[in-house]
From TrEMBL:
It is found in: Cytoplasm. Pfam families: HemN_C (PF06969), Radical_SAM (PF04055). This is Heme chaperone HemW. GO terms for biological process: porphyrin-containing compound biosynthetic process. GO terms for cellular component: cytoplasm. Probably acts as a heme chaperone, transferring heme to an unknown acceptor. Binds one molecule of heme per monomer, possibly covalently. Binds 1 [4Fe-4S] cluster. The cluster is coordinated with 3 cysteines and an exchangeable S-adenosyl-L-methionine. Keywords: 4Fe-4S, Chaperone, Cytoplasm, Heme, Iron, Iron-sulfur, Metal-binding, S-adenosyl-L-methionine. NCBIfam families: hemN_rel. GO terms for molecular function: 4 iron, 4 sulfur cluster binding; coproporphyrinogen oxidase activity; metal ion binding. Coiled coil: none annotated.
Length: 412
């Protein structure tokens, strides 16, 4: 049935976050090596890592009053999720992660049920586990409050990992998950599909391997060719074949069918979780919650404006040391906020509430949405259920393109 999972999770009742909770993202801008496809901000030099940890802690302190302005300072209104992203947060020592977590607790009110996620790479986790010898690195993570891991597996096949220039190999991916599942229930892994020379059978094997570990959450993305990446250059020089959209579309269908058959809920375009295992951090973004981003290139949102820190480690460090926040601010127009809601809403099972469109943006926006959505409704790419606009199964892979056609560009 097209709407079976959707009916279980209505817009009003399924948010994995509290009504007023806040989110804190901490960007760790370091990686051991650059993956060919990645265009995120990071440095492969660790020379400034110690200074960066101190600067991140200082920015956490500097942004305290800003968080209070989000109306998240009351006793019932606390930080519900802390997310270490990157870059590669697992390059930090446990003591450095603990220092940052302690800094958050010292300066903010934190929910007793806070979700604390650490993004990690298999090579870091297996190397650290070997170094720890008598005690698992996963025990150390658990002891400092980390209760969720997001592990960048990407593929279980050696040739895929080499093509992506991942730092780990297939054996490390398997070893890492075997060890991690002994200590953590709440684990997510990343998988990439649409990889050149990845057959449908090979993609199915990747999914089956992931499922064999009992992982309750999987994030999966099509391989995309971003400007100024090594992958772009390799394709331009003919060393690697370009990803094909039709292959990615086939892989997406396989992904959805296999995971839903195993009880996963396809709650966001690229994310699948068992019940009670949705990512609370990412859900904050998709549901329009307010959040603060700490570190170089990190973004923040307070409901009326968006800001972002400079994507330069040296300038970021100098600015924080001089007691200045190195960010730019954009006040969002009503059409900006409408467009953002359309994009994030359509990507999730919560969809776009027509009632919310009318109440928050006005009848002109609602009329425009009805007009623009008509062709997608007629083509069975969108449907309306209980006043909520959502993509059909056929429309899910086309969500981003559909959303762009629903954007309101000329109102103001």
């Amino acid at each position: 049935m097209e709407t079976s999972n959707l009916q279980l999770y209505s817009h009003s009742s399924t948010s994995p976050l509290g009504r007023t909770g806040g989110a804190l993202y901490i960007h760790i801008p370091f990686c051991k090596q650059a993956c060919h496809y990645c265009d995120f901000h990071f440095s492969t030099s660790m020379k400034k890592k110690d200074d960066m940890v101190l600067a991140l802690a200082k920015e956490i302190q500097m942004r305290k009053s800003e968080f209070e302005l989000l109306d998240c300072s009351r006793s019932y209104n606390k930080i519900e999720t802390i997310y270490f992203g990157g870059g590669t947060p697992s390059v930090l020592q446990v003591s450095e992660l603990k220092f940052l977590i302690d800094t958050v607790y010292e300066n903010y009110k934190v929910s007793k049920n806070v979700e604390i996620t650490l993004e990690a790479n298999p090579d870091d986790l297996t190397e650290l586990s070997l170094q720890a010898q008598s005690r698992s690195i996963f025990e150390d993570y658990r002891d400092i409050g980390i209760n969720r891991l997001s592990i960048g597996i990407q593929s279980f096949f050696e040739d895929d990992l080499k093509m992506m220039n991942r730092a780990h190999n297939s054996a490390e991916a398997m070893q890492c998950l075997e060890e991690a599942t002994k200590y953590f229930d709440n684990i997510s892994i990343d998988l990439i599909y649409g990889v050149p020379n990845m057959s449908n059978d090979k993609w199915k094997q990747n999914i089956e391997t992931a499922l064999s570990f009992g992982i309750p959450h999987i994030s999966s993305y099509a391989l995309t060719v971003e400007p100024k990446t090594a992958l772009k250059k390799l394709i331009q020089t003919g060393k690697i074949a370009a990803p094909r959209d039709e292959v990615a579309a086939e892989h997406f269908v396989i992904l959805v069918e296999m995971l839903e058959a195993k009880g996963f809920i396809h709650y966001e375009l690229s994310n699948f979780g068992k019940e009670d295992y949705f990512s609370r951090n990412n859900s904050a973004y998709w549901l329009g919650k307010k959040y603060i981003g700490i570190g170089p290139s990190a973004h923040s949102y307070n409901g009326v404006s968006r800001s972002w820190n400079i994507s330069n480690n040296s300038i970021y460090l100098k600015s924080i040391q001089d007691d200045k926040l190195p960010n730019e601010l954009e006040i969002l127009s009503i059409s900006d906020r409408y467009n953002e809601y359309i994009m994030t809403g359509l990507r999730t099972i919560w969809g776009v509430s027509l009632d919310k469109i009318e109440k928050e943006f006005g009848l002109d926006y609602l009329s425009y949405l009805h007009k623009q959505a008509r062709k997608f409704l007629d083509d069975d790419l969108l449907f309306i259920e209980n006043g909520i606009l959502k993509p059909t199964k056929k429309g899910k892979f086309l969500t981003d393109g559909i959303a762009s056609d629903l954007f309101y560009l000329n109102l103001e």
